[in-house]
Description:
The complex is a heterodimer. Chain A is an all-alpha fold. In chain A, α2 packs across α3 (47-57). The longest helix of chain A is centred in the last third of the chain and has 48 residues, at 158-205. The termini of chain A are far apart. Chain A is 68% helix and 3% strand. Chain A has helices spanning 2-22, 27-38, 47-57, 87-98, 109-116, 122-152, 158-205; strands at 61-63, 83-85. In chain B, α4 crosses α5 (146-159). In chain B, the strands form 2 sheets. Chain B has a 6-stranded mixed sheet with strand order 6-7-8-3-9-10. Chain B has a 4-stranded antiparallel sheet with strand order 2-1-4-5, covered by helices on one side. Chain B is built from 7 helices and 10 strands. The radius of gyration of chain B is 20 Å and the shape is globular. Chain B has helices at residues 48-55, 78-87, 103-108, 117-130, 146-159, 176-193, 238-246; strands spanning 5-16, 20-32, 37-41, 63-68, 71-72, 89-93, 164-168, 196-201, 212-217, 220-223. Chain B starts with a strand and ends with a helix. The interface between A and B is large, with 43 and 38 residues.
Amino acid sequence: MASTVQQSEMSAGEIVLGLLIEQPDTCYHLDKRIAERLGSAQFSRGAASRAVERLLERRFVRPADVEEPAALRVVGGRKKTVYEATPSGVDHFERWLRASTQTPPVREELHAKIALWGPTELPRLIEIVREAELACTLQLRDANRGMRADRQAGDASEWERTMQLIVSAGEATWWDARIKWLQDVRMYLEREHSRQQVEAGSRRTRAPAR
Amino acid sequence: MDPVLSLREVSLSFPRGRRHVVRVLADVSLEVYAGESVTVLAQRAQGKTSLLRVVAGMERPDRGSVVFAGEDLWRLSDRRRSRLLGSEIGVVELAAPQLDVPVLTGVALPLLDRHGRRDAYARAKRALAHVGASECARQHWGALADSERALVALAHGIAREPRLLLVDDLATTLGIEERADIAELLGALAVERGIAVLVCAGGSGPEPSSDRVASLGGGRLLVAPPAPAEATNVLDFPGEHRRRASS
């Protein structure tokens, strides 16, 4: 979903910054921590290193004066830089955390298609909506799996588990609402389609009623 | 492995007056295997309960077949079908019991005709313990919180050790955490006891339990194939399609 990706790019910097405040880390390991904390596939691999680059430019993070912990080192891999937050980075993060959150605009491919579609190719549009509906059921299933995994994560603290549950429940609710909207759209289009067919049929076979 | 439940092109509609019919299910096909849980998402009045009634053998579809454990439900005698419903097919719904008795008695009562009194109560106790509702055993339905009612309803459903468990909108009124508890229980029931679980959900929020999620609307059930490719980008542009169609 284009809107989700855009959203996540927007706050990737702050998320990485927050994780570095918790604990200095390498980009490689940051990617893993993002996945753990934010559940399924919101970020692509390498998102952390892109975010770190931008944070470096703004002097919110800097290379830390420590070695990469031996336990995390990939065997045979080259040494990786450990980054930490700067005081101005901590400042920025705390301001971001306390600022109120924007409501995202819904601007997404399927909306555009429905808005631009003519009435003549209803069957194809119905097909597209069905495909989107199916795709969303898969996304919901994955979000549900993430939710189950979060609850079974044995080493997490009560607070961490609760926060993770809330995050993945938010994701699942989003897909759930999406499916409901698509069901509505599809039912409406299918009704419209059969109405068109009935009309076409009656024009051919009989004179108007009464 | 054969599915525990198999619906093949099941259709159901109800007449409204002489000229109209309300189409509730249109060519619905679905298979549910032992050890998996499947959630059907549908909004209000979109055939959730009808689907469950058809699956349970309570409602006869106009067309199509309902096969439970290899047997076509509507080729069985009424007697055999109604016995299945009491034993191998369990139904879980949030409805107040007709008798105002303590929870434990309520769960044990339907077991009395097949098991002795002691055995029935022992089974009822085990079922309540399994869902974590032992504390409710002496309470009456009216004194229970929604989350406790959901657990007790679940205990009712599993007390007879069914092979197929049908769950109707159990968690609608619950909060995130309670829903997650119920979901985890249902998932565990499927995996640990090898039960085939079919959940119909609607109303508010996701039902976070299932191996598979299907969507029911306008009578049609959309089911992703069991081993799905990670297909999220399945849309193409209308313009492209028009070009292809005209060439």
